[in-house]
Amino acid sequence: MAKIIKVQCTGSGQHVNEIDLDSILGATVVLHGTPIDTGRPIPERIVRRCDVCSEGRVILTREMIEENLY
Ligand SMILES: [Zn+2]
User: Fold this and answer.
1) pLDDT of residue 30
2) Which residue, among 24, 68, 22, has the nearest Cα to 48 in the 3D structure?
3) In the chain, where are the structural domains located?
4) How far is the CA of 39 from the centre of ligand 1 (A)?
5) Residue pLDDT, tens place only, 12-26
6) pLDDT (0 to 100) of residue 66
7) Which residues have CB less than 5 Å away from ligand 1 (the ion)?
8) Res 70: pLDDT
9) Interval between CA 12 and ligand 1 midpoint (Å)
């Protein structure tokens, strides 16, 4: 079951990016993670490029991810 989080980019356009939680938790390099019941750690913070513009960044915090997991 894929979970999607919608996050606005930091650029002037504030584009809404749909972030697939599975892709984040499956592939991200983890510095300081806390194990969850899937056995996969959640990173403190994830920064991605906006899908739409080149200036924007899409920032997810662990709190945002956890809110969407439970
Ligand atoms: Zn953008």
Assistant:
1) 44
2) 24
3) 4-69
4) 32
5) 999 999 998 877 776
6) 83
7) 9, 11, 13, 15, 50, 52-53, 56
8) 65
9) 7
* Nearest residue to 58 via CA among 22, 6, 21, 23: 6
CA atoms within 13 A on the CB side of 16: 4
The pairing of strands 45-49 and 57-61 is antiparallel
pTM higher than the cut 0.85:
no
Q: Report the SS3 class of residue 24.
A: helix
Q: Give the integer Cα–Cα distance in Å for 31 and 48.
A: 16
Residue 48's nearest CA partner among 69, 18, 26, 12 is 18
- Kindly give the distance from the C-alpha atom of residue 2 to the centroid of ligand 1, in angstroms, as a whole number: 23
Tokens of 14: 């504030």
3-class DSSP assignment, residue 42: strand
